[in-house]
Design goal:
By secondary structure, this protein is α+β, with helices and mostly antiparallel strands. It is built from five helices and three strands; from the N terminus they run H-H-E-H-H-E-E-H. Helix 3 crosses helix 4.
């Protein structure tokens, strides 16, 4: 990496750690599965077992410990997380409160395709 004058160089290792932290795969977890999905804006959900695990890895359960797949399923059941086709005809998990505007933004492109 090139160093700008007066700055400390950022290594590839630093960038990798920052990426993992920003995706909540290391460090602080989100307070709930719904918050994890909100943090990511949406998560591709074609493979349901995979996306359930991905959300659980990033969040805490109601007891304050690591979330389980059952906790993520509970968020789907209560509507705080929704599995839908907001864009590209691909299943995603999205925050329940954001589904309407996401579909509105992406619907024209999906219809024209």
């Amino acid at each position: 990496m090139r160093e700008a004058s007066g700055t400390t160089p950022v290594t590839r290792r630093d960038l990798a750690r920052l990426r993992l932290a920003s995706q909540r795969l290391v460090g602080e977890r989100c307070s709930s599965p719904a918050e994890a999905v909100r943090w990511m804006a949406c998560m591709q959900g074609q493979d349901l077992p995979g996306v359930l695990e991905s959300v659980a890895l990033r969040s805490l359960g109601p007891d304050g410990g690591p979330a389980t797949i059952s906790d993520v399923r509970a968020a789907l059941a209560d509507g705080s997380v929704v599995r839908s086709w907001p864009m590209r005809g691909t299943l995603h998990l999205v925050p329940g409160e954001d589904l309407g505007w996401m579909v509105g933004v992406a619907a024209g492109r999906s219809r024209s395709a």
